[in-house]
Amino acid sequence: MKLATKIGLIAGVVSIYFPVVGITERFDDRTIIDGVLTLGSTIFLVIALAAGYVVAKPRHLPGEEPEPPGPSALLYGAVASGIAGVMAGLFVLLADSVDLRTVLISVTGTLIERLSFGGSAGSAVVIMAVGGAALGALGAGLQLISQSIRRPLVIALGAALLISLTEPLLNAVIPEVLSKLGLKDDTSWLYTGGGLSVTGAILVLVLTFVGVFAWTSRGERVRQAYAGRSNRDRRLIKGGALLLLALFMAYLPQILTSFLSEILGTVGLYILLGLGLNIVVGYAGLLDLGYVAFLAVGSYSTALFVSERSSLGWTLPYWQVVPLTIVIATVIGIMIGGPVLRLRGDYLAIVTLGFGEIARVIVQSDWASPTLGGAQGILGVTAPEVFGVDLREPRNLYYVILISVILVAFISWRLSRSRVGRAWNAMREDEQVAEAMGVSIIGYKLLAFGTGAALGSLSGMFFAIKLGSVFPSSFNLLVSINVLALIILGGMGSIPGVIVGAFVLVGLPELLREFGEFRLLIFGIVLVSLMLLKPEGLIPSRRRKMELHADELEEEQYDDSAGQGGAEPVVT
Amino acid sequence: MRFALPERWSVQRIVKILLGALLLFVVFKGVSATIADGKFTAAAWKSLITTGLALGSLYALIAMGYTLVYGILFIINFAHGEVFMSGAFTAFFVARTLNNSGFLNDQPIISIAILLLVSMLVSTTIAILLERIAYRPLRGAPRLVPLITAIGASLFLQNTFRGLYGAKVRAYPEIDILSGTVNIFSFVVGKDQLLVIAGAALLVVALYLFIERTKTGRAMRAVGEDKEISALMGIDVDKVIVTTFAIGGMLAGAAGVLWAINFKQVDFYMGFLPGIKAFTAAVLGGIGNVVGAALGGLILGLLEGVAPALLLTGYDVPSPNQLKDVISFSVLVFVLIFKPGGILGSDEPDKV
Question: Using a CB-CB distance cutoff of 8 angstroms, which residues of chain A are in contact with residue B90?
């Protein structure tokens, strides 16, 4: 009961937090299920359900068998979410009677009206308390049903949410696909009013539920069959799957609108940046918070050499600019990294942060404006033409970026398997031991920094081409944070992690315009909760996982090494 | 393939010496050119110095939070700048309310006391919550983990304040008795600046006495030396760590009020730069060292006030004040290259 009260109070604070910060009102514009649910109200539902779920979770001491939760769990769940509901209701009551607007700008009249469900603020307390309790009991009920049903159910709910949120993307793609298949390009069975229709929601829920249910009951056999194959076969299967994925990505622009191709191009740029920073942070363990500086170096040097309107007064052809830019960036990277690499990791973080700021301040200053154009930036970066194809066109640029991503991903995959990659790993895990084993710490750190800088400048080059001009305001700290966040979300040192991270943290927010101003807030929450709950990220690399969960993984590790004879088939 | 030369070649030392000589030459040339130019009057220099001192004492106050936490947990509390921001924001709302009722100018001393009290309370609460939620569960995790959490917490706090109070820059109400100037040794000092310098000095001295003289202070130093042994000696390590965060938060809250009084505006992003600068100050003085942080803060503030005019004008740099952040970050980099332990720290680069 004490636990229920505690969690109820926390959930209450959280459910007041969202409307007060302004998220609720903003997210109410977004439909999840047409006429039934908005994103704003979904948040409340999730909070109430989650509170009940957490309270009912069976607790046990280490070494003891967990006791299956009894029906009393329902009561506790109801109490927890009921408390949260009462708190939220009392907040509405308070906001209704006292004008909070002078201090809390997000507590508007419309918000209060919505939160009182059209009735009086007093009735809101009752509705929220009762509704909260019911949802809490429901959440607790999730703990009572068996794992084989609970998992598909939760996944189905998540899938419905995701499919609804990606409406702008899917609603543009599905008609194209349908018409190519010779069907009527009508999606009103799935989407209406900017979200799922009621039938669409039911369809998605049922299909995902059945699919996941079938996979959990049958999937084990497939997985065993896969594990039973020889290393060679598995590598073939994996390679084939990757090839299929690449082909699909190559086909994608054909069915996408130009706007979506552009988003994909942006995601690709961030993947490139992420892969570069991944070498620095993920492989070598050097936290670089000023990575945007290399993006800036790449963009500015491209613009300087290519644009006719730059201060140089002469231009170079692209095939000369590319290597030149990479060399410049690498040299700058080594110059920045060199002096501070003797120091401990967290100092490096602050110093690189400082360098990132220095780069921005200098570029914007009057002092550098004769060369770099000051706040006006450099205009007129002409697009390179390859076989008469204009690369500024989002679709064409997309292909170039796609090829670069594949290339860079391959290089960094090979790097991680090489002698250099192993040295980086050893260094990340324990510098002194690595040094004692003959790893030249400074040399490998410089190498990591230089490689990262070169890759960062590569994306900078695409960035300049994409925009056709370069402005100092594009290179702020947020870019660095963004790239760092996507690496951490995916899992440090993991290449698929970078790609997934970029899609989630860069692609999704582009589709969800409503997120705009809350993007950083969400980043903050994601970073903190990931570090607390799953520090290895969504798709962790094996080594990283071992590092963070050494004791849990020990057994599995022995099994693996016995079965595979040392070879690691997992692409990390 | 070898990537680095063996240590005994000491290329690093040669590079260091060359770099140092170059740096000295650049500074000397710039300074002498500026002085020969005579663009600034003595009064202008003096006003730059007082501005720098006021700024420096604020940095010193914020730097205490970094240095205390680092001295005990060996982590950089990256979100400390946001704790400072929360104090300044709170001060704004309290001051506005007091101003609207006329109390602010009727009873200015009581008002400032109230401001300080409320802001310090809010900042302390936030600092304690930060420790409890973001840092305590991660004690003993790999180094990068708490640092990333700190960045996350910093983003979270910044944007929470933005969501709560809006993205606008808010003008801070004037307090009548703090407008105007006084003359001290021919230095013209604004009364608000005087309050800032005096207040900061008082708080730093109080903190120093607290750490050196009280039992809790001794416990803090003990935990900084060795957590396990301290626990064996009957010290409640968790409590000491919470106390440390609380003290840091309190001083940051006070710095927030003084900052608002001095610069008369607040916004949600204001914690970022002072936060990094205060960290720079802590490193400059020798991180983990309270006196060092105070000294580092003052030096950094002075440099930031005087150096753009003194150094950059000599090179005919247009609008040198735009580049003052470059100077403070360069200071950080050069300190780390030449004396990583800081002014009052040991010279051995820390390698725990």
Answer: none
Q: CA triplet B138, B141, B146: central angle to 5 degrees?
A: 55
Report chain B residues whose CB lies below 8 A from the CB of A105: 164-166
**Average per-residue pLDDT in chain B?**
80
A238-259 pLDDT, tens per residue?
788 888 887 877 777 666 667 7
| Contact between B349 and B340 (Cβ < 8 Å) | yes
Listed residue (A475, A476, A473, A470) closest to A311, CA to CA: A470
Mean pLDDT of A275-296: 87
Domains of chain B (ranges, CATH numbers) = 53-338 (1.10.3470)
Q: What is the pLDDT of residues B53-91, one digit of tens each?
A: 888 999 999 988 888 888 888 888 888 888 998 888 888
Query: Once rounded to an integer, what is the mean pLDDT over residues B4-32?
Result: 73
Chains A & B: contacts with CB separation below 8 Å: 172
For A245, the token pair is 């994925």
A567 CB-contact burial (10 Å; exposed 0-12 / middle 13-18 / buried 19+): exposed
Question: DSSP assignment of A7-60, as one string?
Answer: HHHHHHHHHHHHHHHTHHHHHTTSEEETTTEEHHHHHHHHHHHHHHHHHHS---
CA distance A246 to A409: 12
- For position A556, what pLDDT does the model report? 43
| pLDDT value, residue A87 | 78
Enter the tokens of residue B271: 């914690």
Residue B235 C-alpha, separation from nearest chain A C-alpha, in angstroms:
27
Interchain pair B4, A440: CB under 8 A:
yes
Burial code (b: 16+ CB inside 10 Å, e: under 16) for B231-240 equals eeeebebeeb
Min Cα separation A215/chain B (Å)? 35
Dihedral, CA of residue A523, residue A528, residue A533 and residue A536, to nearest 10: 70
ipTM for the whole predicted complex goes beyond 0.85: no
Specify the residue for token string 């990340």. A428
3-state helix, strand, coil in chain A (%, to 5): 75, 5, 25
Contact yes or no for B156 and A524 at CB 8 A: yes
Closest among A226, A234, A352 to A284, alpha carbons compared: A352
Dihedral of CA atoms A25, A30, A32, A38 in degrees, nearest 10, equals 20
Strand partners, B189: B182
CB-CB contact of B270 with B88 (8 Å): yes
Contact state of B329 with A105 under an 8 Å Cβ cutoff:
no
Contact A349 B333 (CB under 8 A): no
A369 touches A310 (CB < 8 A) = no
Chain B contacts in chain A segment 420-439 (CB below 8 A): 431-432
- Domains by residue range for chain A, with CATH: 1-144 (no CATH), 243-539 (1.10.3470)
Interchain proximity B333–A351, CB inside 8 Å:
yes
DSSP helix/strand/coil, B173: coil
Q: Rounded to the nearest 10 degrees, how much is the dihedral formed by the CA atoms of A521, A523, A528, A532?
A: 140
pLDDT for A274 equals 92
A567 touches chain B (CB under 8 A): no
Q: In the structure, what pLDDT confidence band is assigned to residue A60 with cuts at 50, 70 and 90?
A: low
Amino acid (one-letter) located at B231 = A
DSSP string, B252-320: HHHHHHHHHHHH-EE-TTTTHHHHHHHHHHHHHH-TT-HHHHHHHHHHHHHHHHHHIIIIIGGGT-SSG
Q: Taking the alpha carbons of A267, A272, A273, A277 in that order, is the dihedral positive or negative?
A: positive
CB B48 within 8 A of CB B288: no
- Does A76 or B151 have the greater pLDDT score? B151
User: Is it the case that residue A282 has pLDDT exceeding 70?
Assistant: yes
Higher pLDDT, residue B3 or A464: A464
Does the distance separating the beta carbons of B151 and A532 come in below 8 Å? no
